Amino acid sequence: MGSVGSGIAAASSGESQTDLAVALGVSQAQVSRRQSGTAVWSLADCEAVAAHYGIDVAYLIIWSYCWAMSSQRIGRVSAKASRG
């Protein structure tokens, strides 16, 4: 997952992709591709998501980056632990 996509996926926990798509004026498939990292979120997309959740776009991007970094770190630690 791309860092913004993973952050937006986490931020939208409890909300369906369809609900988010309606709020953003895009299809559910477009939201799915963006959240999975197969398509990129434009700055306009990020601004729309931030407005939807009532947060500043800078906060969304920074939070998304931190979410992605912590997820990568957890993945590396888990891989090391499983190798023993």
Low-pLDDT residue spans: none
Strand content: under 5%
Let me know the average pLDDT: 75
> What Rg is obtained from the alpha carbons, in whole angstroms?
14 Å
Estimate the helix proportion, in percent: over 70%
Distance between the termini: 27 Å
Look at the helices and sheets and give the structural class: mainly alpha
Q: Which keywords apply here?
A:
434 Repressor (Amino-terminal Domain); 0% strand; mainly alpha; 76% helix; 84 residues; globular
Structure characterization notes:
The protein has 84 residues and is an all-alpha fold. The chain has helices at residues 3-11, 17-24, 28-36, 43-53, 57-83. The model has no long low-confidence stretch (mean pLDDT 75).
Short description:
Helices cover 76% and strands 0% of the residues. It is mainly α and 84 residues long.
Topology:
Elements: H1 3-11, H2 17-24, H3 28-36, H4 43-53, H5 57-83
